[in-house]
Amino acid sequence: MSTFSLPALPVATLGTPRIGPRRELKLALESFWSGKSDETALLETSAALRAANWARQKALGVTIIPSNDFSLYDQVLDTSAMVGAIPAIYGWKGGPVSLDAYFAMARGSQGETERHTSCGHAHHDHDHSHGAPAQEMTKWFDTNYHYMVPEFATGQRFELSSLKAVDEYREARALGYETRPVLLGPVTYLKLGKSKDATLNPLSLLGELLPVYIDVLRRLAANGAEWVQIDEPCLVLDLDAAAREALRRSYATIAHALPPLKIMLTTYFGGLGDNLDTALSLPVAGLHLDLIRAPRQLDDVLAKAPQGLVLSLGVIDGRNIWRADLPALLDRLEPVVAKRGTDHVQIASSCSLLHTPIDLELEPDLDPDLKTWLSFSIQKMGELATLGRALSAGRASVRDALAASGQAATARKASPKVHDAAVAARIAAVTAGMADRKSAFAARAKIQRPRFNLPAFPTTTIGSFPQTAEVRKARSAHAKGALSDADYEQFLREETKRTIRWQEEIGLDVLVHGEFERNDMVQYFGEQLAGFAFTKHGWVQSYGSRCVRPPILFGDVSRPTPMTVGWWTYSQSLTTKPMKGMLTGPVTILNWSFVRDDIPRSAACRQIALAIRDEVADLEKAGARMIQIDEAALREGLPLRKGEWKGYLDWAVGSFRLCASGVSDETQVHTHMCYSEFNDIIDAIGAMDADVISIETSRSKMELLDAFRTYKYPNEIGPGVYDIHSPRVPEVGEMTDLLGLARQRLADGQLWINPDCGLKTRKWEEVRPALVNMVEAARAIRAAAR
Question: Which of 53, 155, 392, 466 is the most buried (most CB within 10 A)?
Fold first, then answer.
């Protein structure tokens, strides 16, 4: 690390990764949840991670360091805890929100007397004799980060129930770091929430909510905070007049109550567009712009923004891992600074760095050329500091850094590692007919149903089974060379065989092999495709303790050899029941990777689709007659503005169809989607023309099925009947109730029964009883339908 001693233009990160360079938070959380460690140990680890984050930013030259960007699970859940939006089912009676209640909202509770503790506060015992399900979880805007959906009730009241924002500001100050506390804005928070009462508009709760925010802000000001960052990413969405008025009311009320406190209003993931005038009318001291997602908005803002407004320019990509072309950025930024002055401009990441891995220097095995093109969280802080120094002290002060940046950008554009003429030729040869099945679904179904001869309401799972400590240990030993290829394969075969036998024993109708050979549903395929690279420590948080290592899609994509045929062939040889071939779809591979930014996303997706099409064809040749192509991430790539939806859905659905449509009518194509809002794109889901889709509906209590009031879904569908992201085991009656709701909207012949996602992250002691209950629920529904 290098330390800058001279003053520089203010630079800000907006937020940093929480998990730690070696996923220390994940380990601490899972140790606490399993009972191996106590609350004190968890809180000590958390404090150490925060202190390290603050120290790292200061050492790298970041001058506006955030606090309250750390979370034990999710910042939206933290906000619910702050304002006391705790549904009654979690046993909260007011006062400080305990860790037990907090984690019950995130993960559910199994139904036992739990001892609720809150650091520094009295203990409270609450009896949850039947347990409580977790709150609904969905994607944070168009990212692969998940948040816990706030739940509001008629007569909702709010109260200050967590001083986390104040405590962490004080904690940083005691360590010698002046920080800018981060809060999720009140309007965005309400818009992210839901109510079981369809007549309750969450924005109607604003008057109840604002006093809590004002209380928190007053406490921050009293403890010395000069600036507070308030995130209102809803400003990049399509807003109606009521939402805009809610924003005006919120910030007018806050400004009236807190005249000395300066607010940096933060927007990200898109441009302000038709909300620009609203944003500029708000009585705030600063406005942050995402100039990666919406670079063209800068001119409009400069033309309208009052001279006294501090502009925070988000020019370093907080969501991708490509090194910035700093000389080119300076060409854009220098005129802005000259016009507005160094005291009214800040340089920042486009959004929080939460979405990027921590440190590129932990990756010594990456291709040397590729490594020069990359920038992780720590490197992005360095880029920010370089820009700040160049804009205040001149380019000569950082000449070497700028030269290296420019050289890397030039080399990447020309590299043969990026461009493959054979891939380009194959893309050029794609025809429209390649995206169509030979026959319509009705004709395919007449061939498929007698072939498979499945019972009514057939049961299956989404694909993966628990990746136990033994599986992970064997994989690690194999990677280190301590377990031979032959011994590792034998281990995997035994795990697969046991899992298939168990599925047969409990009576599942369509089987899967468990995917024990796979590390991650995207990484496994990316490692076998040309054009992808992988890290060892490039972890990013998906939700809670769940971390993923997104592949780096850096070049043209092709499939050198079959990827899954061998494991499918072995697995099918063990059973006479149908065995699904399991693939990840092109849109999900794209959306869950760090994607190259030198070609359109649609072009990269079509390349992946052709590679997966080759795998589908080889599975069919090997005898597979059920092939599942998961598109878990299709919706999260949806643009935030509805006016841009059609363009995305056209190429996303087209890419799925391109990869899936080369098979015969008798081959049944499945797909899976999870944890997103689907009602508003149900037509596009139908247009995918998968024979069977499995989809998340359990946390939202079959809310998806509202779409079928007006849309007659033509194909078959498995609405998930239990939430696999919680350790809680659902009872048979819960699942039959959900299936009853499904039968009100869909014909019995359309319905499959399955969990709402893969079982990789669960433990066998949770999975076994849950799937036994699911099979029993299917039998009950069959009996009721006779």
Answer: 53
> In this predicted structure, what is the pLDDT of residue 711?
82
Average pLDDT over residues 17-45: 97
Task: Match 């076994």 to its residue by tokens.
Answer: 768
Enter the tokens of residue 716. 């078959």
What is the model's pLDDT at position 633? 87
Nearest to 349 by CA among 407, 263, 290: 290
Q: What distances in angstroms separate CA 13 from CA 293, 374, 383, 453, 526, one per listed residue? A: 16, 18, 11, 57, 30
Model pLDDT, residue 464: 94
Handedness of CA 426, 431, 437, 439 (dihedral sign): negative
Band the pLDDT of 259: cuts 50, 70, 90.
confident
d(CA 49, CA 122): 26
Task: Return the residue matching tokens 């992005």.
Answer: 380
- Give phi and psi for 679, each to the nearest 5: -55, -35
pLDDT tens track for 129-142: 357 889 999 889 99
What is the distance between the alpha carbons of residues 479 and 563, in angstroms, rounded to a whole number?
18
Do the Cβ atoms of 715 and 691 come closer than 8 Å?
yes
Which letter does DSSP use for residue 349 in this model? E
The amino acid at residue 575 is: T
Angle at the Cα of 302 from the Cα atoms of 301 and 306, rounded to 5 degrees: 90
Range of the domain at 446: 442-785
Cα gap 640→268, rounded to integer Å: 11
Q: Is residue 201 part of a domain?
A: no
HSE-up (13 A, CA, CB side) for residue 479: 10
Q: Is the residue at 337 inside a domain?
A: no
Q: 223 lies in a domain?
A: no
Structural domain count of the chain: 1
Task: CATH number of the domain at 594, please.
Answer: 3.20.20.210
- 511 secondary structure, DSSP code: B
Q: Residue 481, Cα to own-chain centre: how many angstroms?
A: 33
In a domain, 3, yes or no: no
Angle at 199 between CA 195 and CA 203, to 5 degrees: 65
Q: Which residues of 734-746 are buried (b: 16+ CB within 10 A; e: fewer)?
A: bbbbbbeebbebb
What secondary structure letter does DSSP report for 136? P
Mean pLDDT of the region 754-783? 94
Is residue 35 left, alpha or beta, with left meaning phi > 0 and alpha meaning psi from -120 to 50?
left
CB atoms within 10 A of CB 726: 24
DSSP helix/strand/coil, 146? strand
Supply the pLDDT for residue 68. 98
Three-state DSSP at 286 gives strand
Kindly compute the dihedral angle of the four CA atoms of residues 414, 420, 426, 429, in this order, to the nearest 10 degrees. 20
- 539-553, 640-654, 670-684: least confident range: 670-684
pTM assigned to the model: 0.88
What is the rounded CA–CA span in Å between residue 371 and residue 554? Answer: 11
Indicate the helix (H) or strand (E) that contains 50.
helix 39-60
Q: At what angle do helices 377-393 and 399-414 cross, to 10 degrees?
A: 130
| Burial environment of residue 224 by CB neighbours within 10 A (0 to 12, 13 to 18, 19 or more) | exposed
CA 703 to chain centre: 21
Beta strands in 104-187 (DSSP E): 113-116, 124-127, 137-139, 146-148, 151-152, 179-184
SS3 of residue 546 by DSSP:
strand
Answer yes or no: are the C-beta atoms of 573 and 556 closer than 8 Å: no
Helix (H), strand (E) at residue 448 = helix 441-452
345, 336 contact by CB (below 8 A): yes
> CA-CA distances (angstroms) from residue 180 to 159, 170, 250?
23, 11, 20
Give the catalytic positions in this structure.
725
- Are 377 and 539 a contacting pair, CB within 8 Å? no
Residue type, 544: G
